[in-house]
Specification:
WD40_PAC1; 4-stranded antiparallel sheet; 3 helices
Length: about 400
Amino acid sequence: MGNSGSAVKVCTDHQGGINWLSLSPDGQRLLTGSEDGTARLWSTADSQCHGHFQGHESYITFCHLENEAAFTCSADHTIRKWDVMTGQCLAIYRGHTSIVNRILVAKDYLFSGSYDRTARCWSVDKEKQIQEFRGHRNCVLTLAHYSSRDVLEEEEEEEMEEEEKVSRDLLVTGSTDCTVKVWWVSSGRCYQTLLGHTGAVLCLILDAPNRELFSGSTDYTIRTWNIVTGEQLKVFKEHQGSVICLELVNRHLYSGSADRTVKCWLVDTGERIQTYKAHKHSVSTLKYHAGILFTGSGDACARAFNSKSGVLQKIFRGHKFIINCIQIHNELLYTASHDGTLRIWDIRGICKRNKRRLKKERAGQGRSSQKGSLSRLFNNKVGCMVQQDNGE
């Protein structure tokens, strides 16, 4: 394991804890949303604050950054849209009657989930509510979005109602009422209610090409669902605490938990193949990057693990409270904490070591494969009918 890292830069502009950190699609900017009721825009080129968005009347719970616009939601029941270049508030979306805790931007839609038990859909440009999704018995905590084009076969699409053939967007909501619901955006009609969890649903990950949805809960489980039929496919049961965050990479599912561990699962079999330990508190956030698993924890540390072996490679110390969110860009790690700071860490050394290791592994696999091929060729030539243990 490498020595504990020191931050390249510590940004202390916020006057309250940072609840979320969003990276723009082009990687040029970061957005932080804070308990101080403001959002700040940071350049990834010079790590300076280039925008200060003020206007919310209470703390910001979540934020989302596009290349030209920023979105924030707040305990003041509103969502705001901001111009990235000028810092001007372009729109205020009003309608929720309680804390708005999550937003999602997809196409021309803005989706929101709230403690008022509803999710809503807004027109991004017209500052207008398009749809309300009402049916949960408690607050909506997490959102996902997909199109029926991504998941349905032609014959399945034929069975859809005419209105839904025109607008094929679907919204997925997870709630503290222990359910996940799938809604038609065009009509607001609930398409599926996914039943099985016995605790609040805290996180969702969608894999539309494979028709799968993953949900993590305070019941200590992760569940996999077929998003077309609503069928529960698998239950991952090994965690001993609430499942707080999920990441899906190459059919490997990573889950961070209040039990102080991250686990890696093979999606296709449900097998748990790795457990990442060393956290002294809940794992609050995680991010996979180039064979390395980065985690943020309630113990105020970020960590880097070899994703394959589970070996802890580095601890990033310096924050005073829980790390709520992490982002990675250009081999820099960004960590945002409830202590109000954004810290930037250089991870080039870890990435370089990991690339060398991967190269060695691939070379080793190549030699092993070559040996296996020669062995198979030999066995075929002599007409051997017994399969030998020689690398096949």
